[in-house]
Amino acid sequence: MKIITKIIMVLIVLFCNSTVQSQITFDSNGNYGRIFDITFDSNVENRLYALSLNNHILQSNDKGETWEIIYSMPGNSGRFKKLKFVFAGILSFMVQSPTTLEDNGLYFLDTGSGDIIKYTAPIPIGAENISMVSYSVYAQDPFVAMLHFGYRVGRFDSEVVYYTNDGGQNWTEVYLPENYDSVFPNNVAISPTNPQKLFIARGNSPTGTFGGLFISNDAGQTWEEKMPGTTFKAIAFHPLDSDIILLGTDDVGYGGQSENLYRSVDGGDTWNIIPIPWEAGISDVINVIVFDAQNPNTVMVLEENEIVVTQDDWQSFEKYVHPIGPSDGYFYGLNASFSPFQQGEVFINSNFYPLLSTDYGATFSQLPNPFLSSTFTGIQSDSETHLYFEAQQGIIHKNLQTNEVESFDIVPLGVFSSNPPPFYHVEKNTIGRLYKYTPSSLGSVLGVSSDFGRNYDPLFVNFFDEIRSVNQDPNNSNIVWASFEVGGPVIIDFTDLNNVAVTPVALPGTESMLDVFIDENDSDLVYMAAGAKIYKSVDGGLSWVEKSNGLPTGDNVIYDIEQSPFHNNEYSIATNSGIFKTTDQGENWIQTYQGHNLRKMTYSQFNDLHAVASRMTRQPLFGDPIDAQIIYTTDGGETWIEVPFEAIAHVGSLSMSYLFQEDSVDVYLSTFDLGLIKYTIDLGTLETPDISQNSNSFIVYPNPAQDFINIKNNGDEIVSIHIYNAIGQIVMKHAAEKQIDIRNLESGIYFVAIKNAKGDNFIKRIVKK
User: Fold this and answer.
1) How many CB atoms lie within 10 A of CB 513?
2) Residue 34 pLDDT level (bands cut at 50, 70, 90)
3) Residues 494, 459: contact at Cβ < 8 Å?
4) Do 262 and 274 form a contact (C-beta atoms < 8 A)?
């Protein structure tokens, strides 16, 4: 109890980056979801925690049936690893971020409040590409910890291990390879009952010396080596007797060593091999050793393609051998967690998908979840509405009327290719029409599908090139403009698929064409974006006139051109520096929004004042890291409103699509680690609504408001309400109140995020007088 009180006091004093559950809906297919380090809560039945592929921590209260986000890290530069349940309500994990050095470190999360605290060790002078490798926290006092970093200085790689006994206020360097025959550590551990007893499992070295287990009894001041010449990785302590330790070997390729599981019953002074007949594989690494805390005689060992389990303290054991490299079964185990409430139940994380076993690993099933990596999404809406998104280089198609889902060209996770992933384009006004460009060193193919991606007809082949854009002629669905980085733009006429006609388009400058807009009434009227310039053609691309008056030059890049469906003379462009608009067919441009990396902009077809734009994620290698963001306007671009980063969980996204209704828009985002998510924005005007006539699921009134806001639900149940300020900070949390007191809020613009019982989410903009 004293330890819990101690860390709670630190949480109160030091936590400064509070986050909340995001208001989004997960819309991906669960067959391809990937989450890691699934961990049972020791105190709450059916509660699980897990890590996404990137920067999110997830929680389930129904043993994996559904999930919610309980922590999101801004920036999308770090990847979470090694999630552990410290004690009631507190999780630990580490962040690997080779490009954003300050994000590396050991983190603790208060699952109740979402508050976070970080232990950051010193950065060696001149270090680059810093990344956490392993860590250990003393079980009885989290202020005692070991952190293991890898880094590079110049052309040379190195690693270092630090130790703290005061919560990271002071650090001691306890291991540097240069001082110990240049042998790199593989893993670190602190004895569960002695904060000064440290272990380092050592690995390879550029010299002839490698391996060995290092043990210190004085907090790393001196070390004693055990079993030199053998490389080790996994370390595990008996939950009731810390003198009983299990130790697993690393890759047997080092010096011809044998794969073995070692056991000590005297705190590491002596070691014996547990005789297990291991099968030969590729790397033959013992990755993970896990004791069942409820029954310590049960132990699970995860190897490359083998699972070994004992239920009687190694008097006997079962060995389950699996094929090497399957995409949907066990391969290269990374973590295991025994249920504290159900004997035999254990979650196993392999390198591919999460697995659930109810018989101690003898059999298991894949745990469906929506958290995949996706790079593309598109919407088709006409007589029907169809949603598409990329998964594992293939495409998933969902009919939003029937909810029927199809998957095409999905590449198994165990299959690797040196070719970039395919490029997809969904033709928004032609139901079933997709374009796909498949890069290959043997010849890259642009194909067209008219049956939702089931089949493709080849249109164009080139070599060693990258595609920039595809735009179908709105007046002839058999003609498409395609632009390539090296080869430039071409017009492809596939009226006769057996005799496709390709016409090159001469560019007016040296910049690549990134987008074109073809007038829906006149195919000869074309606007083209090339670099920082806009060009206009009235003869179908035979000649061009520059129309860039008012646009910035230099490093600006124009990514998207759109025409207002209500005003023929009005166009808007999304650029690297913001949104620009013309109302005189490109003669003059004015900037309506200033921001970075705006890649897409779309007008509503229902209201001439509504539009949405997307800021895509930029990774740190290409400048300061930025999260994806949605911006929208309800006054024709006079003002743009930024949806708070927290509202979409600081996701990374390279593609968004929009489905407008009369007073709202569903924004679909393909994300780095949450799959396809949906976020709904209310686009209603800032007026007190006519409640009896409004068809929105939720109505917030009065607006503007001074003292209270009321929430009207038209037959939809409210689950939670969060209010954000204009810079994305949460200022109020509520459950399901119909009236909220806002008298303590300062005057300004706020966002009311409402979640319903179905998991759908809505955002309402209000003004506080």
Assistant:
1) 25
2) very high
3) yes
4) yes
Give all strands of the β-sheet with 457-462 in edge-to-edge order: 423-426, 434-438, 444-449, 457-462
CA distance 473 to 493: 10
User: Is 359 a residue whose pLDDT tops 60?
Assistant: yes
Residue the block writes with tokens 């207002």 = 564
What is the layout of strands, in order, in the sheet containing 286-291? 286-291, 299-303, 306-310, 318-321
Residue written as tokens 């949390």? 733
Inter-residue contact 27 to 133 (CB < 8 Å): no
Q: Which two tokens stand for residue 427?
A: 């033709």
The tens digit of pLDDT for each residue in 276-286 reads 999 988 889 99
Written in H, E and C, the secondary structure of 53-116 is CCCEEEEECCCCCCCEEEEECCCCCCEEEEEEEEECCEEEEEEECCCCHHHCEEEEEECCCCCE
Handedness of CA 79, 81, 83, 86 (dihedral sign): negative
Three-state SS string over 12-45 comes to HHHCCCCCCCCCCEECCCHHHCCCEEEEECCCCC
For residue 131, give both structure tokens.
């990344």
In sequence order, what E strands does 392-443 have? 394-399, 405-408, 423-426, 434-438
Query: Residue 21: pLDDT above 80?
Result: no
Q: Which residue's structure tokens are 């051109």?
A: 561
Under 8 Å CB-to-CB from 287, ≥6 apart: which residues?
A: 233, 234, 248, 302, 303, 304, 332, 333, 334
- Distances in Å between the alpha carbon of 497 and those of 314, 445, 447, 762? 67, 14, 11, 45
| Secondary structure (DSSP) of 644-712 | PGGGGTT--EEEEEEEE-SSEEEEEEEESSS-EEEEEEE---SS---TTT--SSEEEESSSBSSEEEEE
**DSSP result, 314-375:** TSS-EEEE--SS-SSS--S--EEEE-SSSTT-EEEE-SSSEEEESSTTSS-EE---S-----
**Residue 13: what are its φ and ψ, rounded to 5°?**
-80, -40
Yes or no: say if 653 and 33 are a contact pair by the CB < 8 Å rule.
no
- For strand 676-682 and strand 761-768, is the pairing parallel, antiparallel, or unpaired? parallel
Is 725 a residue whose pLDDT tops 50? Answer: yes
Closest CA to 626 of 596, 669, 668, 667: 596
This prediction's pTM: 0.87
Nearest CA to 81 among 68, 95, 70?
Answer: 95
What is the rounded CA–CA span in Å between residue 63 and residue 89? Answer: 17
- Residues in the chain, overall count: 769
Q: How far apart are CA 437 and CA 738, in angstroms?
A: 51
Helix or strand holding residue 3 (H, E) = helix 2-14
Pairwise CA distance, residues 250 & 116, whole Å: 33
- Report the first-to-last Cα separation within the chain, whole angstroms: 47
CA distance 731 to 744: 10
Q: Which two tokens stand for residue 501?
A: 């006609």
8 Å CB contact between 43 and 91: no
**Cα 582 to chain center, whole Å?**
36
Residue 98: per-residue pLDDT: 74
